[in-house]
Amino acid sequence: xxxxxxxxxxxxxxxxxxxxxxxxxxxxxxxxxxxxxxxxxxxxxxxxxxxxxxxxxxxxxxxxxxxxxxxxxxxxxxxxxxxxxxxxxxxxxxxxxxxxxxxxxxxxxxxxxxxxxxxxxxxxxxxxxxxxxxxxxxxxxxxxxxxxxxxxxxxxxxxxxxxxxxxxxxxxxxxxxxxxxxxxxxxxxxxxxxxxxxxxxxxxxxxxxxxxxxxxxxxxxxxxxxxxxxxxxxxxxxxxxxxxxxxxxxxxxxxxxxxxxxxxxxxxxxxxxxxxxxxxxxxxxxxxxxxxxxxxxxxxxxxxxxxxxxxxxxxxxxxxxxxxxxxxxxxxxxxxxxxxxxxxxxxxxxxxxxxxxxxxxxxxxxxxxxxxxxxxxxxxxxxxxxxxxxxxxxxxxxxxxxxxxxxxxxxxxxxxxxxxxxxxxxxxxx
Length: 430
What we know:
The two termini are about 15 Å apart. The chain folds into 2 domains: about 5-205 and about 335-430, Aminopeptidase; about 205-335, Alpha-Beta Plaits (2-Layer Sandwich). The longest helix has 20 residues, at about 135-155. The chain is an alpha+beta fold. A 6-stranded mixed β-sheet has the order 1-2-7-3-8-16, with helices on both faces. Strands 4-5-18-17 form a 4-stranded antiparallel β-sheet. A 4-stranded antiparallel β-sheet has the order 11-12-10-13, with helices on one face. It has 11 helices and 19 strands.
């Protein structure tokens, strides 16, 4: 790329930075937890339409995607699950096409009194913008949008088709990204700016969500010895699952990208409910579990191992032996994905192009890392034969209290993204 054009693009990012911060704060103010994303999606759809992109907004149809590889089982209705895609069509089509993907959904805020400032009343303090979803990952969505704005301010548009995706469901299934594939959105590469500290994610673990349902025998607490406490019965099962976690993390079972990571796969008992009355022995209990899997790990075998582990533990418990636990899968059934395993020309070229852009902005090489969680890249990399790159800003306390994102980092990511688009797609005059 001509250095003068490069300088114009970078300057345009800086010129738009105040507007970008204001847009991000406005977007964070929409409390887009699962099922409540519509107002934030309207905000994104309006912003795309105002910029002249063709906007596609649709409700996810579970029946249209449930047969596809990568589908995660769901509980409840999808009547409130809406995706938004803005499309730029190139006049010349001399470059390579691109998907800019990001998720609009955020995790629950938790007890509000444990936040220093309200989670959906964003606050700027120095370099930090605070609020739920500021880092994960509305800053990335906004970086995508304002990278395109910078190209336009510099007088250019991508010289290839480009699809800007704002999806739901990333935090629990990934079915929003899958629905984009089902709808026909495909490209030569994908960039997802998840908040991983301006590094390239070379590999990610997969995730399985499941519930364990237990039934006990209720009695008055005065006769507790005659009953069976369903909540306490969960304890040996949880202990058994942690044994499975240790076994899966053993060095001989690790994917090579995680060879030096002692504990890449994390099991989390994230929720437990049960019982009906303090003075009654609880007759029921349900606990929710999240478990990681390595790239390449067979999902059917993983499910079978989970179920066998629970049943073996049940056999060792006098009550559970006759009252077997029931396993219900809901939410993530996500395979791991390793970009580093893709040695194709498109993947190597996309990585180099992003690395070059990062080097211009930061004057250092682009580092790579393996992460112990999942992103939507798996859909494109595993099921659409498309290299999918994760590269986003520095954020802190994502999924926690006082989540925040570095605005200087957002600025650098926006610059690198703009240069990546320019070099990957090519440029044509607006």
